Amino acid sequence: MKRIEYIYFFASSGVNKKIKGTVNALNDLGFLADDIPITGSFFSRRVNLIFNLVTTKADIIILRHDFLLAALYLPFFIFLRCMGKKIIVDIPSPLIVAAKEHFSIHNFSFAGLVKIVLLFVQHPWSLWPVNLILEYAEESRFFSFGLKSKILYTTNGIDVSQIPSIPVKESYDGNFNMIAVGEIAFWHGYDRLIKGMRDFFMLHPEQKKSIFFHVVGAGSDVENLKKMADELGLSENVIFHGHKTGDALSSIYANANLAVGTLGLHRKAGSNASPLKNREYCAYGLPFVMSHFDADFANDVFFCLQEAPTDDPVNVSHLLSWASDQTRCSPDGRQAIKDYAYKFLDFRFKWKKILDELEAGNTTR
Asked: Between residues 363 and 22, which one has the greater pLDDT?
C-alpha cells in the first residue's frame, strides 16, 4: 500500500476542508494517506515544512505551493527524487494571476513589488524537479517554461458524501430565494445582482416582497454590499447572514431556489476557474449562475446559467424564468443535479485521474 502525504500551510477553512476531503478520497482509493498541516511563524513554518520533506516516509508527496520562497525547496525536491519519491505540487491559482493580483492589491507598494519580484525570480526553474504540477486555469508562457509536460490542468473537487441531504425547495411558491456562500470579495461580483434587483423592482414593484438574496459568509466586500443594498432601498431584500455552518447553513439552502456563483472573476484578470462553491451548489441539487468558464460545467449543462463577464447588472427577470423551469426545479431535476456531482465532481473521481496521470507520465517527467 503506497503512502501519500499532503503537506500544506494551515490556512482558511475552505482550503483545509479541501485538503481533508482529498486525503479521505485517497484513503478510499486504497492509499495510506495523511494530511500534514504546518503552523507557526513565517520562518518557522518553512523550517517545519523542510523538516517534513526530509523525514517523510511517503511514496508520494503533495505540496501546496509556497510561491514566496519557492526556490528554498529546490534542493529538497532533488533529494526526494533521488530517493525515488514522487512529488506533486498543487498551485491553486495560476502564477501569472497571482502576480497581477499582488500588483493590483498593493497598488505599487513596496511589499507588493517585493512579492512580484520574488514570484518572477524564483519561477519557473524552482519547479523543474517535481513530477506533476496541478493547475486550475491556463498558465502563462513564462511561468510554464520547461514545465509544460509536467502541468496537469484539472478542476477542484469536493467530498460529495459530506454534503447533507436536505429537502430543497422544488418550486417557485411566491417567494424566490437566491443564495451565495463563501468568503465575500469584490471579484465575486454580487453587486451586479443587487443592481439587477434594483432594476427589476423598478419595473415590477409588486414583487419586492417576494424576491430575496441571501449572502452567507464574511469577507472584505460585505460592508460595501451592505451599504449598496441600503442606498438602493434593498436592505430587506438582501439579507446578510454572516458565517454559517451545520444546520443553520442547511436551513438557508433548503429554502433556496437558485445559487449565485462568481459574477466578477474578470475583475482580477481571470476568465476561468473552478470554485468550490459551484461544486457544493451542485451537490445540494441547486441550479446556479456564474460569469466565467468552469471546465466541469462547460458542456451546456442544464443547471448552470452563464452570464456575460461584464460589470453590467444581472437580468433578474431572466434569472427567475430560467430557475423556475421544471427541468431545474422539479424533484427529478434536482436529483439529476446531485447525480452529476456524485459522478463528476467528487474527490475520488478527480484524484483517480490525477494519480493515473502521475503513473502514466512516470517515464517522461
From this structure: 22
